[in-house]
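G.,

No rush on this.
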Amino acid sequence: GKPSSNKNTNVDNFDAKTATNKQKGNYGEIKSSDNLLNNQSLKEAGFDLKPVGKSAPSGINDKIVKGIDGLYENANPNSNIKYVIDEAKFGSSQLG
């Protein structure tokens, strides 16, 4: 497949056993965003997602930004689904 993005997401050296909560949170957001933007199965299901607002962290050590992790607009004009909201969690973390 194609590379996930041009941005240096710096997740190759991620180790869940030694990572801080901040690093785990950023890792989850990076991987989730990459999946929504590049997953071939989603594209085949009619999703052509474009990020709206803040972008995913560029690395696991980025400062935490409060709020919804991701908001994406579906650029496919033939889909009834116009927006996707993403909230990534790591391990046993809960929503809310």
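When you get to it, here's the other one too:
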Amino acid sequence: AKDIIMKANSTLLIGTVIDFPEGRSNLEAKIKEANEAIENGADDLDFVCNYEAFKDGDIALVKEEILIGTQIGLAHNKTVKLIIEVAALSDKEII
């Protein structure tokens, strides 16, 4: 996709999702996937939060994923977003 965009002299950005759809992979797998996405030309990285850890109250793991994902983005001048699968949460968990 990046080659096509460059050949067209377009400023279109490429975004991808890391660890879709459930965010259950370990941190090493997420790091590998993010680095591969960057190598393949991704401009935006949307990390899927490990919502099972979130639901279980393992905030330390969620924070670590946010920190590492953000560091990867900053190191490569990429936009990073965190996705929380709200549909998998109860109303109480959302509030």
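The beta strands are 15-18, 44-48, 79-83. Residues 59-75 form the longest helix (17 residues).

Enjoy the weekend,
O.
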